[in-house]
UniProtKB/TrEMBL annotation:
It comes from the Bacteria. This is Biotin transport system ATP-binding protein. Gene3D superfamilies: P-loop containing nucleotide triphosphate hydrolases. GO terms for cellular component: ATP-binding cassette (ABC) transporter complex. Residues 3-223 form the ABC transporter domain. CDD domains: ABC_cobalt_CbiO_domain1 (cd03225). Belongs to the ABC transporter superfamily. Keywords: ATP-binding, Nucleotide-binding, Transport.
Length: 226
């Protein structure tokens, strides 16, 4: 799926959060890194219209995120830094099904797709579990399932390994690596990016590096040390 930024920028209350950027993202695994406040999350949220460009244009699969907002948003699912905050219903299976119920699907298809995505991520045994009872890793898997059940082409994850122990971090790392969908990962967990196709480094609202994980991380560490 082609994601294209054409001189796209974002301003908030007179402050330039993202300076004009022109870049095309086509790779299967893309990492986004940078210091806090560097613009990386704002940039990622522009991909699925959570943030609109103040100037310029962003397209996803040829769909403009402003003029074709609803369709463009359907192409890319976003998982927030605290995934529990985006879950609406208290029981896991009900929350996953909720994302399908407003799409005109039959009751049978909603049930089938919910069951299939629970099986896909090996969390069918948690179907009747309450969200607040899930571990950190289970919550992250639940969030991934609740987004991918709607079948977007792209999954954007914001700090997916944040505050996870080593076991759950490894689980999420393996899950991301196995996804057939294109994945864009915002992270401070630099080892997570090992094997990624491309990494963008943001600094002060601009792309400071764009290349292999090793090259982008090296420049990131130089900036962080200043």
């Amino acid at each position: 799926m082609d994601i294209v930024f054409s001189d796209a920028s974002v301003s908030f209350a007179g402050r330039q959060a993202i300076h004009p950027v022109s870049v095309a993202l086509t790779e299967r695994r893309i990492g986004i890194i940078g210091l806090n406040g560097s613009g990386k999350t704002t940039f990622a949220r522009m991909i699925n219209a959570l943030v609109r460009p103040t100037a310029g244009r962003v397209t996803i699969g040829g769909l403009d995120t402003v003029t074709d907002e609803e369709a463009a948003r359907g192409r890319a699912g976003f998982i927030f830094q605290n995934p529990q905050h985006q879950m609406i219903l208290p029981v896991l299976a009900e929350d996953i099904a909720f994302g399908l119920k407003n799409r005109g699907l039959s009751k049978e298809e909603v049930a089938q797709r919910t069951e299939a995505v629970l099986e896909r991520f090996a969390i069918a045994h948690l179907a009747k579990r309450r969200i607040h009872e899930l571990s950190g890793g289970e919550t992250q898997l639940a969030a991934i399932a609740s987004v991918l059940v709607t079948r977007p082409d792209i999954l954007i994850l914001d700090e997916p390994t944040n505050q996870l122990d080593l076991k759950n971090r490894s689980l999420i790392e393996q899950t991301i690596a196995a996804l057939p969908e294109q994945a864009i990962v915002i992270t401070h967990d630099l080892p997570l990016l090992d094997g990624f196709d491309r990494v963008l480094l943001f600094h002060e609202g601009r792309i400071a590096a764009d290349g292999t994980p090793a090259d982008a991380i090296r420049i990131y560490r130089e900036i962080a040390a200043c």
